[in-house]
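User: For a reading group we're discussing how well predicted structures match intuition. Take DUF6511 domain-containing protein. Before you show the prediction, I'll give you the sequence so everyone sees exactly what went in.
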Amino acid sequence: MIDPTPNETAAMVEGGKAGGAYLDSLGRTDLAQLSEAEWDTFVEVIVTGYCDHLRELASKDRARLDGMIPEVPF
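Assistant: Thanks. Here is the predicted 3D structure of DUF6511 domain-containing protein, as structure tokens, for the group to look at:
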């Protein structure tokens, strides 16, 4: 990813944490030792963690931006 936004950077950290937690649950650190199914799950866990956190941050941004819109006075 070129020039990630602050939200994307934060989401990458969270996706990485989720991937690390999955590897911990397997008791492994060597990615070459993962089975095909374990690799697929590892990638899915990282991507899901990234996307979930990015959506969470976006919803907070949306709420903050919506709060900046003045109400129509009628």
